[in-house]
Write a structure and sequence with these properties.
16 helices; two-stranded antiparallel sheet; 2 strands; cell membrane; mainly alpha; Na+/H+ antiporter like fold; ion transport; sodium transport; antiport; globular; NhaA
Protein backbone atom coordinates (compact mmCIF):
# COMPACT_ATOMS: atom_id res chain seq x y z
CA UNK A 1 0.00 0.00 0.00
CA UNK A 2 1.24 3.46 -0.94
CA UNK A 3 0.13 5.10 2.33
CA UNK A 4 1.77 2.33 4.38
CA UNK A 5 5.02 2.86 2.48
CA UNK A 6 4.90 6.61 3.17
CA UNK A 7 4.33 5.97 6.89
CA UNK A 8 7.13 3.38 7.09
CA UNK A 9 9.59 5.80 5.46
CA UNK A 10 8.63 8.53 7.92
CA UNK A 11 8.97 6.20 10.91
CA UNK A 12 12.39 5.02 9.71
CA UNK A 13 13.81 8.52 9.20
CA UNK A 14 12.39 9.75 12.52
CA UNK A 15 13.89 6.77 14.38
CA UNK A 16 17.36 7.11 12.87
CA UNK A 17 17.28 10.86 13.35
CA UNK A 18 16.58 10.35 17.05
CA UNK A 19 19.92 8.64 17.57
CA UNK A 20 21.81 11.43 15.77
CA UNK A 21 19.91 13.95 17.89
CA UNK A 22 21.05 12.15 21.04
CA UNK A 23 24.73 12.28 20.07
CA UNK A 24 24.47 15.97 19.10
CA UNK A 25 23.04 16.74 22.55
CA UNK A 26 25.79 14.75 24.27
CA UNK A 27 28.44 16.60 22.28
CA UNK A 28 26.92 19.94 23.28
CA UNK A 29 26.88 18.98 26.96
CA UNK A 30 30.46 17.77 26.75
CA UNK A 31 31.73 20.96 25.11
CA UNK A 32 29.78 23.19 27.51
CA UNK A 33 31.57 21.53 30.45
CA UNK A 34 35.02 21.09 28.90
CA UNK A 35 38.12 23.26 28.47
CA UNK A 36 36.59 24.34 25.12
CA UNK A 37 33.45 25.74 26.77
CA UNK A 38 34.34 29.37 26.00
CA UNK A 39 34.76 28.56 22.30
CA UNK A 40 31.46 26.64 22.25
CA UNK A 41 29.48 29.51 23.77
CA UNK A 42 31.30 32.07 21.59
CA UNK A 43 30.38 30.08 18.47
CA UNK A 44 26.70 30.43 19.31
CA UNK A 45 27.03 34.23 19.40
CA UNK A 46 28.98 34.68 16.16
CA UNK A 47 27.12 37.40 14.20
CA UNK A 48 25.86 36.31 10.79
CA UNK A 49 24.13 38.78 8.52
CA UNK A 50 22.64 39.35 5.09
CA UNK A 51 22.83 42.72 3.33
CA UNK A 52 21.29 43.63 -0.04
CA UNK A 53 21.46 47.36 -0.72
CA UNK A 54 19.59 49.10 2.10
CA UNK A 55 18.19 45.83 3.40
CA UNK A 56 20.14 44.27 6.28
CA UNK A 57 19.38 41.39 8.64
CA UNK A 58 21.91 40.28 11.25
CA UNK A 59 21.53 37.71 14.02
CA UNK A 60 23.79 35.53 16.21
CA UNK A 61 24.41 32.13 14.66
CA UNK A 62 22.24 30.35 17.24
CA UNK A 63 19.24 32.49 16.25
CA UNK A 64 19.68 31.65 12.57
CA UNK A 65 19.39 28.02 13.62
CA UNK A 66 16.45 28.63 15.97
CA UNK A 67 14.53 31.07 13.77
CA UNK A 68 15.30 30.06 10.18
CA UNK A 69 16.28 26.39 10.15
CA UNK A 70 13.64 25.51 12.72
CA UNK A 71 11.06 27.16 10.46
CA UNK A 72 11.72 24.25 8.09
CA UNK A 73 11.08 21.87 10.97
CA UNK A 74 7.77 23.61 11.66
CA UNK A 75 6.96 23.45 7.94
CA UNK A 76 7.40 19.68 8.16
CA UNK A 77 5.18 19.61 11.27
CA UNK A 78 2.48 21.48 9.34
CA UNK A 79 2.76 19.13 6.36
CA UNK A 80 2.49 16.07 8.61
CA UNK A 81 -0.53 17.48 10.39
CA UNK A 82 -2.32 18.29 7.13
CA UNK A 83 -1.56 14.83 5.73
CA UNK A 84 -2.70 13.06 8.90
CA UNK A 85 -5.97 15.03 8.96
CA UNK A 86 -6.79 14.34 5.31
CA UNK A 87 -5.42 10.86 4.54
CA UNK A 88 -3.81 9.55 7.74
CA UNK A 89 -4.67 8.31 11.20
CA UNK A 90 -6.48 11.50 12.18
CA UNK A 91 -9.04 11.45 9.36
CA UNK A 92 -11.16 8.80 11.09
CA UNK A 93 -13.17 10.30 13.93
CA UNK A 94 -12.68 7.43 16.38
CA UNK A 95 -8.95 7.08 15.77
CA UNK A 96 -8.48 10.83 15.84
CA UNK A 97 -10.55 10.99 19.03
CA UNK A 98 -8.16 8.70 20.89
CA UNK A 99 -5.02 10.57 19.78
CA UNK A 100 -6.62 13.98 20.37
CA UNK A 101 -7.91 13.14 23.84
CA UNK A 102 -4.62 11.51 24.86
CA UNK A 103 -2.62 14.46 23.52
CA UNK A 104 -4.81 17.00 25.34
CA UNK A 105 -4.37 15.09 28.58
CA UNK A 106 -0.65 14.84 27.90
CA UNK A 107 -0.46 18.64 27.57
CA UNK A 108 -2.82 19.77 30.33
CA UNK A 109 -1.56 17.56 33.18
CA UNK A 110 2.18 18.39 32.74
CA UNK A 111 1.39 22.11 32.58
CA UNK A 112 -0.73 21.80 35.72
CA UNK A 113 1.96 19.94 37.64
CA UNK A 114 4.56 22.51 36.61
CA UNK A 115 2.36 25.34 37.90
CA UNK A 116 1.95 23.55 41.24
CA UNK A 117 5.63 24.30 41.85
CA UNK A 118 5.84 27.57 39.92
CA UNK A 119 2.55 29.39 40.32
CA UNK A 120 3.97 32.90 40.59
CA UNK A 121 6.79 35.10 39.41
CA UNK A 122 8.97 34.76 36.34
CA UNK A 123 9.14 30.98 36.84
CA UNK A 124 5.43 30.61 35.97
CA UNK A 125 6.21 31.53 32.36
CA UNK A 126 7.69 28.07 31.78
CA UNK A 127 4.40 26.14 32.05
CA UNK A 128 4.47 25.32 28.33
CA UNK A 129 7.85 23.55 28.47
CA UNK A 130 6.76 20.09 29.75
CA UNK A 131 3.83 19.94 27.30
CA UNK A 132 6.04 18.95 24.38
CA UNK A 133 6.95 15.54 22.89
CA UNK A 134 10.03 14.86 20.76
CA UNK A 135 8.77 12.49 18.08
CA UNK A 136 12.25 11.65 16.73
CA UNK A 137 13.59 10.60 20.12
CA UNK A 138 10.41 8.74 21.08
CA UNK A 139 10.30 6.74 17.85
CA UNK A 140 14.04 6.12 18.10
CA UNK A 141 13.63 4.51 21.53
CA UNK A 142 10.61 2.53 20.33
CA UNK A 143 12.67 1.24 17.39
CA UNK A 144 15.03 -0.45 19.89
CA UNK A 145 12.23 -2.84 20.94
CA UNK A 146 11.55 -5.57 18.35
CA UNK A 147 8.02 -6.63 17.46
CA UNK A 148 6.18 -3.45 18.50
CA UNK A 149 2.77 -3.42 16.74
CA UNK A 150 2.47 -0.95 13.87
CA UNK A 151 -0.72 0.36 15.48
CA UNK A 152 1.24 1.50 18.53
CA UNK A 153 3.81 3.28 16.37
CA UNK A 154 1.03 5.03 14.45
CA UNK A 155 -0.64 6.03 17.72
CA UNK A 156 2.61 7.59 18.95
CA UNK A 157 3.06 9.35 15.59
CA UNK A 158 -0.49 10.77 15.63
CA UNK A 159 -0.19 11.73 19.31
CA UNK A 160 3.08 13.58 18.72
CA UNK A 161 1.67 15.45 15.70
CA UNK A 162 -1.33 16.66 17.72
CA UNK A 163 1.11 17.51 20.51
CA UNK A 164 3.19 19.58 18.08
CA UNK A 165 0.06 21.45 16.97
CA UNK A 166 -0.65 22.24 20.61
CA UNK A 167 2.89 23.54 21.04
CA UNK A 168 2.51 25.74 17.95
CA UNK A 169 -0.69 27.25 19.36
CA UNK A 170 0.94 27.80 22.75
CA UNK A 171 3.89 29.59 21.11
CA UNK A 172 1.58 31.77 18.99
CA UNK A 173 -0.83 32.68 21.82
CA UNK A 174 1.33 32.84 24.93
CA UNK A 175 4.94 33.46 23.85
CA UNK A 176 4.33 36.40 21.53
CA UNK A 177 4.92 40.00 22.59
CA UNK A 178 4.36 43.35 20.86
CA UNK A 179 2.59 42.57 17.58
CA UNK A 180 3.42 44.69 14.53
CA UNK A 181 0.03 44.78 12.81
CA UNK A 182 1.44 46.20 9.57
CA UNK A 183 3.91 43.33 9.10
CA UNK A 184 1.20 40.88 10.15
CA UNK A 185 -1.16 42.26 7.50
CA UNK A 186 1.50 41.90 4.79
CA UNK A 187 2.19 38.35 5.99
CA UNK A 188 -1.53 37.62 5.66
CA UNK A 189 -1.45 38.94 2.08
CA UNK A 190 1.49 36.69 1.16
CA UNK A 191 -0.23 33.69 2.74
CA UNK A 192 -3.43 34.58 0.89
CA UNK A 193 -1.52 34.58 -2.40
CA UNK A 194 -0.12 31.12 -1.61
CA UNK A 195 -3.63 29.86 -0.80
CA UNK A 196 -4.86 31.36 -4.08
CA UNK A 197 -2.20 29.43 -6.00
CA UNK A 198 -3.47 26.26 -4.32
CA UNK A 199 -7.03 27.15 -5.28
CA UNK A 200 -5.98 27.72 -8.89
CA UNK A 201 -4.45 24.24 -9.00
CA UNK A 202 -0.76 25.22 -9.17
CA UNK A 203 1.17 22.04 -8.39
CA UNK A 204 4.75 23.28 -8.83
CA UNK A 205 6.50 23.61 -5.49
CA UNK A 206 8.79 26.51 -6.30
CA UNK A 207 6.13 29.29 -6.25
CA UNK A 208 5.10 28.27 -2.72
CA UNK A 209 8.70 28.04 -1.52
CA UNK A 210 9.53 31.45 -2.99
CA UNK A 211 6.55 32.94 -1.16
CA UNK A 212 7.79 31.24 2.00
CA UNK A 213 10.83 33.57 2.17
CA UNK A 214 8.92 36.88 2.47
CA UNK A 215 6.35 35.12 4.67
CA UNK A 216 9.13 34.10 7.09
CA UNK A 217 10.60 37.61 7.16
CA UNK A 218 7.22 39.29 7.70
CA UNK A 219 6.27 36.87 10.49
CA UNK A 220 9.67 37.59 12.08
CA UNK A 221 8.97 41.34 11.97
CA UNK A 222 5.36 40.94 13.12
CA UNK A 223 6.33 39.86 16.64
CA UNK A 224 5.16 36.27 16.19
CA UNK A 225 7.93 33.71 16.30
CA UNK A 226 9.40 33.33 12.82
CA UNK A 227 9.07 29.53 12.86
CA UNK A 228 5.27 29.85 12.72
CA UNK A 229 5.70 30.84 9.07
CA UNK A 230 6.51 27.19 8.34
CA UNK A 231 3.19 25.97 9.74
CA UNK A 232 1.25 28.68 7.88
CA UNK A 233 2.96 27.89 4.57
CA UNK A 234 2.11 24.18 5.00
CA UNK A 235 -1.59 25.10 4.87
CA UNK A 236 -1.15 26.27 1.29
CA UNK A 237 0.84 23.31 -0.07
CA UNK A 238 -1.53 21.26 -2.28
CA UNK A 239 -2.50 17.74 -1.25
CA UNK A 240 -4.21 15.78 -4.01
CA UNK A 241 -5.24 12.31 -2.96
CA UNK A 242 -3.77 9.40 -4.90
CA UNK A 243 -6.34 7.87 -7.26
CA UNK A 244 -7.19 4.84 -5.03
CA UNK A 245 -8.62 7.18 -2.38
CA UNK A 246 -10.94 9.00 -4.75
CA UNK A 247 -14.39 7.60 -4.16
CA UNK A 248 -13.18 4.61 -2.15
CA UNK A 249 -14.73 3.68 1.18
CA UNK A 250 -12.57 2.73 4.16
CA UNK A 251 -13.29 -0.95 3.56
CA UNK A 252 -12.37 -0.68 -0.12
CA UNK A 253 -9.08 1.21 0.34
CA UNK A 254 -6.70 -1.71 0.93
CA UNK A 255 -7.94 -3.63 -2.11
CA UNK A 256 -8.05 -0.51 -4.26
CA UNK A 257 -4.57 0.53 -3.29
CA UNK A 258 -3.17 -2.95 -3.81
CA UNK A 259 -4.70 -3.25 -7.28
CA UNK A 260 -3.52 0.21 -8.27
CA UNK A 261 0.03 -0.47 -7.15
CA UNK A 262 0.13 -3.75 -9.04
CA UNK A 263 -1.15 -2.36 -12.33
CA UNK A 264 -0.54 1.39 -12.39
CA UNK A 265 2.58 1.93 -10.25
CA UNK A 266 4.03 4.66 -12.43
CA UNK A 267 0.76 6.56 -12.58
CA UNK A 268 0.37 6.45 -8.82
CA UNK A 269 3.91 7.73 -8.30
CA UNK A 270 3.20 10.59 -10.70
CA UNK A 271 0.01 11.39 -8.81
CA UNK A 272 1.89 12.10 -5.58
CA UNK A 273 0.93 15.54 -4.42
CA UNK A 274 3.27 18.52 -3.91
CA UNK A 275 2.73 18.04 -0.16
CA UNK A 276 4.00 14.46 -0.26
CA UNK A 277 6.98 15.41 -2.43
CA UNK A 278 7.97 18.28 -0.14
CA UNK A 279 7.43 16.22 3.00
CA UNK A 280 9.65 13.41 1.77
CA UNK A 281 12.31 15.85 0.59
CA UNK A 282 12.34 17.67 3.93
CA UNK A 283 12.40 14.61 6.19
CA UNK A 284 16.08 13.69 5.73
CA UNK A 285 17.23 17.32 6.07
CA UNK A 286 15.20 17.85 9.23
CA UNK A 287 16.05 14.50 10.83
CA UNK A 288 19.74 14.37 9.95
CA UNK A 289 20.79 18.03 9.85
CA UNK A 290 18.38 20.64 11.24
CA UNK A 291 17.36 18.94 14.49
CA UNK A 292 20.91 17.77 15.34
CA UNK A 293 22.15 21.33 14.72
CA UNK A 294 19.41 22.68 16.96
CA UNK A 295 20.37 20.17 19.67
CA UNK A 296 24.04 21.07 19.35
CA UNK A 297 23.40 24.81 19.75
CA UNK A 298 20.73 24.55 22.46
CA UNK A 299 21.45 21.51 24.66
CA UNK A 300 24.79 22.76 25.97
CA UNK A 301 24.54 24.04 29.54
CA UNK A 302 27.39 24.64 31.99
CA UNK A 303 26.63 22.52 35.04
CA UNK A 304 29.33 23.93 37.34
CA UNK A 305 27.77 26.18 39.95
CA UNK A 306 24.24 25.64 38.62
CA UNK A 307 21.71 25.35 41.43
CA UNK A 308 18.59 23.34 40.67
CA UNK A 309 15.40 25.16 41.51
CA UNK A 310 11.66 24.94 41.08
CA UNK A 311 11.88 25.39 37.30
CA UNK A 312 14.03 22.29 36.84
CA UNK A 313 11.88 20.23 39.20
CA UNK A 314 8.65 21.52 37.65
CA UNK A 315 9.78 20.60 34.13
CA UNK A 316 10.98 17.18 35.29
CA UNK A 317 7.76 16.49 37.19
CA UNK A 318 5.65 17.50 34.21
CA UNK A 319 7.54 15.30 31.74
CA UNK A 320 8.16 12.26 33.95
CA UNK A 321 4.81 12.06 35.76
CA UNK A 322 2.49 14.46 33.96
CA UNK A 323 2.97 13.07 30.46
CA UNK A 324 2.19 9.37 31.14
CA UNK A 325 -0.56 10.25 33.62
CA UNK A 326 -2.19 12.76 31.27
CA UNK A 327 -1.99 10.53 28.19
CA UNK A 328 -3.34 7.53 30.08
CA UNK A 329 -6.19 9.61 31.54
CA UNK A 330 -7.03 11.18 28.18
CA UNK A 331 -7.04 7.80 26.39
CA UNK A 332 -9.19 6.24 29.14
CA UNK A 333 -11.74 9.05 28.87
CA UNK A 334 -11.91 8.72 25.08
CA UNK A 335 -12.50 4.98 25.35
CA UNK A 336 -14.96 5.37 28.22
CA UNK A 337 -17.04 7.98 26.40
CA UNK A 338 -16.91 6.14 23.07
CA UNK A 339 -14.94 8.93 21.42
CA UNK A 340 -12.08 6.70 20.30
CA UNK A 341 -10.96 3.15 19.73
CA UNK A 342 -7.67 1.37 20.38
CA UNK A 343 -5.54 0.53 17.32
CA UNK A 344 -5.31 -3.11 16.31
CA UNK A 345 -2.88 -5.02 18.52
CA UNK A 346 -2.69 -2.28 21.17
CA UNK A 347 -3.89 -2.41 24.78
CA UNK A 348 -3.72 -0.12 27.78
CA UNK A 349 -0.19 -1.30 28.65
CA UNK A 350 1.03 -0.07 25.30
CA UNK A 351 -0.63 3.30 25.90
CA UNK A 352 1.17 3.56 29.26
CA UNK A 353 4.54 2.83 27.63
CA UNK A 354 3.82 5.48 24.96
CA UNK A 355 2.97 7.89 27.78
CA UNK A 356 6.49 7.58 29.16
CA UNK A 357 8.07 7.83 25.71
CA UNK A 358 6.08 11.02 25.16
CA UNK A 359 7.83 12.37 28.25
CA UNK A 360 10.92 12.76 26.06
CA UNK A 361 10.35 16.47 25.47
CA UNK A 362 13.77 17.50 24.19
CA UNK A 363 13.56 19.47 20.89
CA UNK A 364 10.23 21.27 21.31
CA UNK A 365 10.68 21.56 25.09
CA UNK A 366 14.11 23.20 24.65
CA UNK A 367 12.62 25.43 21.97
CA UNK A 368 9.83 26.68 24.27
CA UNK A 369 12.31 27.04 27.13
CA UNK A 370 14.32 29.43 24.97
CA UNK A 371 11.20 31.53 24.42
CA UNK A 372 10.19 31.49 28.09
CA UNK A 373 13.48 32.14 29.86
CA UNK A 374 16.99 33.50 29.67
CA UNK A 375 20.03 33.18 31.90
CA UNK A 376 19.87 30.95 34.98
CA UNK A 377 16.20 30.06 34.60
CA UNK A 378 16.88 28.89 31.05
CA UNK A 379 19.75 26.72 32.29
CA UNK A 380 17.48 25.24 34.95
CA UNK A 381 14.83 24.48 32.35
CA UNK A 382 17.41 22.82 30.09
CA UNK A 383 18.64 20.60 32.93
CA UNK A 384 15.04 19.63 33.73
CA UNK A 385 14.32 18.82 30.08
CA UNK A 386 17.50 16.81 29.52
CA UNK A 387 17.33 14.86 32.78
CA UNK A 388 13.61 14.08 32.54
CA UNK A 389 13.84 13.17 28.86
CA UNK A 390 16.63 10.69 29.58
CA UNK A 391 14.73 9.05 32.45
CA UNK A 392 11.45 9.03 30.50
CA UNK A 393 13.18 7.30 27.59
CA UNK A 394 14.69 4.65 29.88
CA UNK A 395 11.37 3.99 31.63
CA UNK A 396 9.43 3.90 28.36
CA UNK A 397 11.92 1.47 26.85
CA UNK A 398 11.91 -0.77 29.94
CA UNK A 399 8.10 -0.89 30.08
CA UNK A 400 7.72 -1.53 26.36
CA UNK A 401 10.37 -4.23 26.34
CA UNK A 402 8.94 -5.84 29.48
CA UNK A 403 5.40 -5.92 28.11
CA UNK A 404 6.64 -7.25 24.78
CA UNK A 405 8.78 -9.95 26.42
CA UNK A 406 5.80 -11.27 28.42
CA UNK A 407 3.45 -11.22 25.48
CA UNK A 408 2.95 -14.37 23.49
CA UNK A 409 1.14 -12.32 20.84
CA UNK A 410 1.50 -8.68 19.78
CA UNK A 411 -2.16 -8.20 20.78
CA UNK A 412 -1.13 -8.54 24.40
CA UNK A 413 0.32 -5.04 24.27
Amino acid sequence: MLVKRWVEQILESESKGGFLLFFAALLALFLANSPWAASYFALKEVPVGLRIGEFALEKPLVLWVNDLLMALFFLLVGLELKRELLVGELREVRRAGLALSAALGGMAVPAGLYLLLNAQGAEARGWGIPMATDIAFALGVMALVPGVPLGLKLFLLALAIVDDLGAVLVIALFYTEGLNLGALAWAGAVLGLALLLNRLGVRWLWPYLLLGLPLWYLILKSGLHATLAGVLLALAIPLRLPRPFQGATREEEPEALELELETLEEEVEEAQSPLHRLEHSLHPWVAYAILPLFAFFNAGVALAGLSLGSVAFGVALGLLLGKPLGILLGAWLALRLGLGTLPEGVGIKGILAVGFLAGIGFTMALFIAGLAFAGELLDQAKVGVLGASLLAGILGFALLRGFQARASRPEAL
